[in-house]
Design goal:
Blueprint: E1 7-12, H1 27-41, E2 46-51, H2 59-64, H3 69-93, E3 98-102, E4 111-112, H4 115-123, E5 127-131, H5 141-152, E6 156-161, E7 182-184, H6 185-190, H7 198-206, E8 211-215, H8 221-226, E9 233-236
Parallel strand pairs: 1-2, 1-6, 2-5, 3-4, 3-5, 6-8, 7-9
Antiparallel strand pairs: 8-9
Helix pairs in contact: 1-3, 5-7
């Protein structure tokens, strides 16, 4: 089956792992997400994953309670490492070969991020899970996805969310909101549509790296995006 892309970067939020829970990792939801990723891996597509940590700890939330921003961001990065390990373990149980690489050195539990090694793993058919964001405070995991996608030569960043695309307004609050099929980076930035943060959008725009925003909870949506079908919202130059 012909695919539209050979190498992709999937941005998965930590909140996506919670399922219907208020906190942490829902194993049923995690297994469902792994099934969606596996369906694409079986097509021969090379897959990198950047994962967030909001289901465990959010740096910005920490600063709201008076915590130092850099300290809070580093704690958030550690939360992404925990999520990456859980995702890799779920993949192992599903018979999928994966590797975790962390932007923070925690060599007892995960490999350090090395670009050349990550690309080799992808070429070998392994899924590479990138943890700890960019390794620097003040940057989101959206920016990490844009950065890693650019570094590994991904053809597209696929942002997995709870909604099936980018809308003119919040579809949960406005029933008249409509989904964009395609939208330019400049439109997304100027209209403040919150596709990703402004730094991530600007980086993807400058690298001419398109973004597709889709629902990870919609069965088969990830596969349909990879096959080039009309799914989600395409953000392009």
């Amino acid at each position: 089956m012909a695919t539209a892309y050979k190498r992709i970067l999937v941005k998965l939020s930590g909140e996506a792992l919670m399922g219907e829970d208020a906190y942490g990792i829902n194993r049923v939801t995690l297994a469902r997400i792994v099934t969606e990723i596996a369906s694409v891996a079986q097509l021969g597509v090379e897959i990198g994953v950047v994962i967030g940590g909001g289901n465990i700890f959010r740096g910005l939330a920490g600063t709201a309670t008076g915590m130092d921003r850099a300290t809070a961001d580093y704690m958030g990065m550690l939360a992404t490492v925990m999520n990456a390990m859980a995702l890799a373990d779920a993949m192992r149980q599903a018979g999928i070969n994966s590797r975790v690489q962390s932007a923070l050195n925690i060599e007892q539990v995960v490999e350090p991020y090395i670009r050349g090694k990550a690309i080799r793993y992808l070429e070998e058919g392994k899924i590479v899970i990138f943890a700890a964001g960019t390794g620097n405070p003040f940057f989101t995991t959206d920016t990490a996805a844009a950065l890693r996608g650019s570094e590994i030569g991904a053809e597209i960043v696929l942002k997995a969310t709870k909604v099936d695309g980018v809308y003119t307004a919040d579809p949960m609050k406005d029933p008249a909101a409509t989904r964009y099929t395609r939208i330019s980076f400049d439109e997304a930035i100027n209209r403040n549509l919150k596709v990703m943060d402004a730094t991530a959008l600007a980086l993807c725009r400058d690298q001419r790296l398109p973004i597709n925003v889709f629902s990870i909870f919609k069965p088969g949506a990830l596969k349909r995006v990879v096959l080039g079908e009309d799914e989600g919202t395409m953000v392009h130059c």
